Amino acid sequence: MDQLIALPVIQPAEAQTKNRKPDWLRVKLPVGKEYAKVRQLVDTYKLHTICESGNCPNMGECWGAGTATFMILGNVCTRSCSFCAVATGRPNEYDLDEPRRVAEAIQLMGVKHAVITSVNRDELKDRGASVWHETIVQIKKLSPETTIETLIPDVKANWEALEMMISAGQEVVSHNVETVQSLYRRVRPQAKYERSLEQLRRIKEYGKRSKTGIMLGLGETQEEVYQAMDDLAAVGLDILTLGQYLQPTKMHLEVAEFIHPDLFAHYKEEGLRRGIKYVESGPLVRSSYHAERHVHV
């Protein structure tokens, strides 16, 4: 039987009274020469990054290290997940030249490991898989030594599209389940927990290193986190990231609780005990955090 541990949590009301988040959620503002270089390349090539669109707290650290997570297929998503800061609506951007521009920017940055993600494009028959495939092909052509992680959306059981997305030579394929099963209707109303598990199972069976991420602090119980870990281990997951949910705007879901770093450490131990090869767990962890470490696990 799994051990339930009692650790301090800070409720949002208490944090608001103090007019600040817990100390462990403080991050440095993005500054520095390398950050400015990435900023210039992103602007010059008219690229989208999830770092900006998702209000990632690690943008300063990652961009300062000369890395960024590029978001292809536009910056308007067909989904309306209640946790996500990316704009929702009817996308009008479908740029067939985007793979070349992304590949050239990555070459100019000289990164050793690149992360590519995208919005959901449910209105497209192939879910954008052809652009996904060509982007990876172009990156490998210009930067053959660069390793690649692709953080792909839910393909709504279009398994042909999935195969096209993951067959272009990337080393790691990630698809985030985001939360525990009981919270799906509230957190991811257009997604299905079991379908995401099936997508991860197929990614692993295709021969790719599989990865997913879960946000904590949305109201899940410890038992539900353990069950999610068991479900992920059952589909052969290689890499799991666990991080604190932060409310991007007042229009999004409120934080139910701020999870203490000691509980994150406990969850890491539990994930490893269940056979997941690599677990990145901490308040500021996001799915692409320390992604370069996940290539060889």
UniProtKB/TrEMBL annotation:
Note accompanying the cofactor annotation:
Binds 2 [4Fe-4S] clusters per subunit. One cluster is coordinated with 3 cysteines and an exchangeable S-adenosyl-L-methionine.
Q: Which cofactor does it need?
A: [4Fe-4S] cluster
UniProt binding sites for [4Fe-4S] cluster 2: C77, C81, C84
The entry's localization annotation reads:
Cytoplasm
The source's domain of life comes to Bacteria
Keywords in UniProt for this one? 4Fe-4S, Cytoplasm, Iron, Iron-sulfur, Metal-binding, S-adenosyl-L-methionine, Transferase
Give the reactions, separated by semicolons, that this protein catalyses: [[Fe-S] cluster scaffold protein carrying a second [4Fe-4S](2+) cluster] + N(6)-octanoyl-L-lysyl-[protein] + 2 oxidized [2Fe-2S]-[ferredoxin] + 2 S-adenosyl-L-methionine + 4 H(+) = [[Fe-S] cluster scaffold protein] + N(6)-[(R)-dihydrolipoyl]-L-lysyl-[protein] + 4 Fe(3+) + 2 hydrogen sulfide + 2 5'-deoxyadenosine + 2 L-methionine + 2 reduced [2Fe-2S]-[ferredoxin]
InterPro entries according to UniProt: Aldolase_TIM, Elp3/MiaA/NifB-like_rSAM, LIAS_N, Lipoyl_synth, rSAM, rSAM_sf
Q: Which Pfam families match?
A: LIAS_N, Radical_SAM
Residue ranges occupied by any Radical SAM core domain in the UniProt entry: 63-277
Query: What NCBIfam families does its record include?
Result: lipA, PRK05481.1, PRK12928.1
Its name, as the record gives it, is Lipoyl synthase
Q: Which organism is it from?
A: Nibribacter koreensis
> Which gene underlies this protein?
lipA
